[in-house]
Specification:
single chain; 247 residues; 10 helices; 8 strands; binds adenosine-5'-triphosphate; binds magnesium ion; 6-stranded parallel sheet; alpha/beta; Rossmann fold
């Protein structure tokens, strides 16, 4: 593995580290051509948030966790960027939640699927985890979507009641909501269709969210979801934060 130029004291260390992870994943064939563009858009919004977990995002994270913990069939959907940026931590989270992960990518090719599935299997071995990794053999389709991006696994995404989808596309998010699922998304852009249509929108950076979720699972009691959660209000608060942060 190549070394990162900067040391941890570098002011942009965290950002450089994430970019480095994407570069390495790119070399392994795990990413789509547009992966770095998507990341760049995320970085721009993260600047506007002050590169921190804002209070409304923490509220959404807590609510998402309570939904995942009380779900009948929770699942975590993974795309290339999610695996590249936080593959290990996402498997640790799945282990703690006792749920499967499913590789479900927008630009599906056999090579990318194989690279992502192999990488996750390696992490399972290295970390002594036994998280079920789905996606190799799709046997169901998400209604309302065309082409390979509709493919999914019946015992995973198709039958799940609560689904955590970091970095989802707007179309697919809408289609999953239309299936009646509770869809939790992580998206730094509060204006994206994904952020606007999800059941729970965490406007925060993926690696921070996963760290927060693992911390909450380890440090606090299991909580039950409250009826008073208002996602529109949560998204509005993140926009307010952006508008006032530099004001
Ligand atoms: P949509 O399809 O929801 O309308 P989009 O097509 O504009 O959104 P995509 O290019 O599909 O967006 O996906 C990139 C999204 O992922 C962007 O909204 C970006 O802000 C977000 N994103 C990228 N990297 C991260 C990250 N590390 N953490 C959280 N969100 C991220
Ligand atoms: Mg999109």
């Amino acid at each position: 593995m190549t070394k990162i130029a900067a040391d941890p004291s570098h002011p942009r260390y965290q950002s450089l580290l994430l970019r480095h992870r994407l570069e390495e994943a790119e070399k392994k064939g795990m990413l789509a051509g547009s992966a770095l563009i998507a990341h760049g858009r995320g970085e721009a919004f993260d600047y506007l948030l002050g590169e921190q977990t804002i209070p409304s995002a923490m509220n959404a994270t807590q609510h998402a966790l309570s939904l995942l913990q009380s779900a009948r069939r929770p699942v975590i959907s993974l795309n290339g960027n999610a695996v590249a940026l936080a593959g290990k931590e996402l498997l640790q989270l799945a282990h703690k939640l006792n749920c499967a992960v499913e590789v479900n990518i927008f630009y599906r090719t056999p090579e990318r699927m194989e690279s992502l599935l192999n990488h996750l299997t390696e992490i399972n071995q290295q970390e002594s985890l036994a998280v079920e990794v789905l996606g190799a053999n799709p046997d169901a389709r998400i209604p309302g979507l065309e082409g390979p991006r509709a493919s999914c696994t019946r015992s995973g995404i198709y039958d799940a009641d609560v689904i955590l989808v970091p970095l989802e596309d707007g179309d697919r998010c809408e289609a999953l909501v239309a299936m009646g699922k509770t869809v939790v998304v992580i998206d730094l852009n509060p204006l994206s269709r994904t952020a606007q249509t999800a059941s729970v929108t965490i406007v925060d950076e993926l690696t921070r969210v996963v760290t927060n979720m693992i911390f909450l699972l380890e440090s606090s009691e299991k909580t039950t979801p409250t009826d008073s959660y208002d996602n529109q209000e949560i998204v509005r608060q993140s926009l307010d934060h952006i508008l006032t942060f530099f004001g």
